[in-house]
């Protein structure tokens, strides 16, 4: 076996045969859990205490990209656990795609900030769960995801839960927010869900050609640099950087120290959220990543009620139950499907998987070795891994 093949097999962190796979999966879901809940609550905390700049709220979502350098350089320079030098293997196509997706994320961040400034956390979280609808549709179009009764049932339930919130929005409207602003926030949040749903299958398609977690983080750095550039341009034209100083000193009602602590905490929490999201899509698939995000949004709903004492009337209860029902139906469908695949493999004496199944366990380092040895035009070759 060549050194190149050995290196590839060492870094095939998608494969369940790799001893790093499960710890990496759990670590990323932990990042996603902490980041999703804390970033949602901290963003609302900023607006609740007289923070008003949506560009500031947008900028902090991506400005912490230097933190992603840590998981990129530490394994190579400190632990010597990988032979791949950081930031190598980028093709012009991958670089251009990363920049494009980064600008798209920048717009998504702005829409989220716009919606979060007008809506309660619980309502915003329930609306964002609608991204799973768009995610399924776009996954079918972009990555040829199969439609099953379970994932279709999940989509229908989540759609109905969002419709219920729209019909009963007058009962949830904050006293200091006009009806027009409330619906602007509603539409902005739906738009953020749509863009994020587009991001997931696009990255799922790209990650099919990536077998190294470090490169996923490198691509994430490029994306967030692009998003930060977009947000910084908006900050400059809107006076956002000057506004940050004024807000911290004069406007924020918790004082300057708490203001900057809120800003820094937002920066860190959003990086954990995006890092976890990218890792989950890379290690599983785009639809599974979307499902995991939706499950955590239910925790955001609870967080908004507990931390900010938001109203949690009958409509929100029904919407939350429908979201949970949809999520559980999808998880159960995955369980049944994976169990059937396992039973089939046991009957076949450990045979292969269906090539359309891109969930956990569908990557085989032996097959990957054959690809590398048989053709220099493989995706791994083009990526320089």
TrEMBL record:
GO terms for cellular component: membrane. Keywords: Membrane, Transmembrane, Transmembrane helix, Transport. Pfam families: PUNUT. One of its GO terms (molecular function) is purine nucleoside transmembrane transporter activity. Coiled coil: none annotated. The chain crosses the membrane at residues 21-47, 59-78, 90-112, 124-143, 150-167, 182-200, 212-237, 257-274, 281-308, 314-335. It is found in: Membrane. InterPro entries: EmrE-like, PUP_plant. Its main location: membrane. It is a multi-pass membrane protein. Belongs to the purine permeases (TC 2.A.7.14) family. PANTHER family: OS09G0467300 PROTEIN-RELATED (PTHR31376), PURINE PERMEASE 4-RELATED (PTHR31376:SF3). This is Probable purine permease. It comes from Gossypium darwinii (Darwin's cotton). The lineage of its organism: Eukaryota, Viridiplantae, Streptophyta, Embryophyta, Tracheophyta.
């Amino acid at each position: 076996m060549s050194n190149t093949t050995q290196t590839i097999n060492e870094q095939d962190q998608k494969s369940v045969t790799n001893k790093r796979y499960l710890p990496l999966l759990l670590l990323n879901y932990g990042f996603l859990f902490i980041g999703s809940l804390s970033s949602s609550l901290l963003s609302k905390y900023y607006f609740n205490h007289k923070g008003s700049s949506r560009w500031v709220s947008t900028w902090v979502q991506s400005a912490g990209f230097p933190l992603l350098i840590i998981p990129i350089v530490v394994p190579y320079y400190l632990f010597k656990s990988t032979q791949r030098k950081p930031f190598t293997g980028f093709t012009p196509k991958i670089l251009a795609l990363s920049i494009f997706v980064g600008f798209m994320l920048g717009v998504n961040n702005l829409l989220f900030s716009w919606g979060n400034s007008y809506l309660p956390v619980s309502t915003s979280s329930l609306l964002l769960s609608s991204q799973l609808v768009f995610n399924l549709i776009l996954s079918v179009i972009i990555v040829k995801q199969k439609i099953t009764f379970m994932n279709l049932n999940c989509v229908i339930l989540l759609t109905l839960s969002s419709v219920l919130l729209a019909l009963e929005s007058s009962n949830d409207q904050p006293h200091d927010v006009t009806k027009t602003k409330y619906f602007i926030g509603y539409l902005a949040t739906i738009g953020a869900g749509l863009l994020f749903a587009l991001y997931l299958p696009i990255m799922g398609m790209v990650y099919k050609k990536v077998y190294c977690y470090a490169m996923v983080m490198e691509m994430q750095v490029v994306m967030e640099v692009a998003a930060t550039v977009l947000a910084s341009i908006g900050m400059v034209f809107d006076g956002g950087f000057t506004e940050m100083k004024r807000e911290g000193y004069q406007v924020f009602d918790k004082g300057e120290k708490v203001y900057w602590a809120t800003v820094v905490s937002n920066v860190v929490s959003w990086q954990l959220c995006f890092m976890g999201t990218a890792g989950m899509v890379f290690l599983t698939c785009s639809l599974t990543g979307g499902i995991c995000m939706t499950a955590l949004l239910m925790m955001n709903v609870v967080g908004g009620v507990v931390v900010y004492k938001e109203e949690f009337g009958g409509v929100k209860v029904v919407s939350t139950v429908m979201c949970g029902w949809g999520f559980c139906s999808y998880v159960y469908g995955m369980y049944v499907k994976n169990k059937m695949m396992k039973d089939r493999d046991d009957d076949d004496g450990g045979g292969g998987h269906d090539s359309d199944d891109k969930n956990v366990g569908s990557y085989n380092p032996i097959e990957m070795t054959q690809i590398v040895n048989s053709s220099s035009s493989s995706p791994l070759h083009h990526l320089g891994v």
